[in-house]
Amino acid sequence: MLTDDTCEQSEGLLRMRYYCEHCDNKSHQPEERRSRTKDKSTSITAICPAHFTASINQEKNTVVVVGCFAHLGHAKKTVQPQVITSGSPTQKSRQKPVQAKCKHCGKWFMSRVVMNRHVKEQHSDPNIIKGTTIECGDPHCDVVCDRMSTLCEHVAQEHGREDLIIEEFKFSDIAKFKEWKKELETGTVSKFVLSSSRTRASGVIQSYFLCHLSGYANRSRHSTPPVGRLRSTKKLGRYCTAFMNTKEFKDGSVLVQCCLGHFGHGFDVRRLPLPDKVKDEVTELLLKGVTTQEVYETVRKRYSQTERGYYLQRYEIRNIADKLRKQGLLSHKDREKQTNTLEHLSSSQMPANSSLSMV
């Protein structure tokens, strides 16, 4: 349909007339329209009566259409179908979902999402702990939280720790963040250890740090300690409120969201992990052939009672020596030499009826 060039407007109504493009009716189109129609290749066998008038009321926002919509005297206008090639920008790329099979019952599902929902509803394992369970650091409190920020909120409200707040810090690069973290740990007699880390599709590296006393030994709350282990774990079996969540962006900057307040334990320098600096000193002495006892005495003299190095334990020296042997840097003869030295030292310092106890 084509519109007439003339429009009528009166009393808030706008009237627009439309007619068939093949129409030669004088009552439907002006003179210049008829002249253009005669030049067309389409032959007119009869006068087409199709036309309509649209009355638009702008105030009431209504449209009334009156006319004849039947065509006569000409063939139906054909519209060339639009061909969309594989490279056309109008074609949307749709990936067909990959079907997935349930490993429990063998049923197939239209997508992995549907299959996972089926497994969760029909094949749930009661031995699997669902969701994240973060126990409050108070051994007399049974509250379990879903995330660290919720734990901080609970402890602040229910245990009177209003000083626990979640803060944000931003550093220009990862080196400045590590320097700040080291100074913080030294000043608060604490240690933040990496719990997990992942790289997003955007390239942002997300890392999660917890207080080194949070959680369970061997990363499991149900695992039993290894056979022959005499030392008790330093872990709380619950969660301290101190945490750090970091985002390292592509430009190198680091955003830190954290709670620096601790809860559920005291501050004992002896419970801190052995610093890397002390480990390096022990390693250097062991590679020089120094015995375990000599390493123990030498390293401890370098530190004061407020520093972790002063509380170096012999088992920590043995653990470092075992790692060096696995790397092929120490021989087993060195181990026999160190063991004989320790046995001789212990037997000379203890009564004959006393049993040897290693710490």
Automatic annotation (TrEMBL):
* Domain C2H2-type as annotated: residue spans: 100-128
Q: Which domain of life is it from?
A: Eukaryota
Concerning PROSITE patterns, the annotation shows: ZINC_FINGER_C2H2_1 (PS00028), ZINC_FINGER_C2H2_2 (PS50157)
InterPro entries, from UniProt? RegFact_GeneExpr_CellDeath, Znf_C2H2_type
User: Compositional bias (Basic and acidic residues) at which positions?
Assistant: 328-338
Is Metal-binding given among the entry's keywords? yes
Q: Which UniProt keywords apply?
A: Metal-binding, Zinc, Zinc-finger
Question: GO molecular-function annotation terms?
Answer: zinc ion binding
* Biased segments, Polar residues type: 339-359
Q: Which Gene3D superfamilies match?
A: Classic Zinc Finger
Region labeled Disordered — which residues?
Answer: 328-359
Matching entries from SMART domains are given as: ZnF_C2H2 (SM00355)
Concerning PANTHER family, the annotation shows: C2H2-TYPE DOMAIN-CONTAINING PROTEIN (PTHR33936:SF25), PROTEIN CBG17840 (PTHR33936)
User: What is the designated name of this protein?
Assistant: Zinc finger, C2H2 type
Q: Whose protein is this, by species?
A: Necator americanus
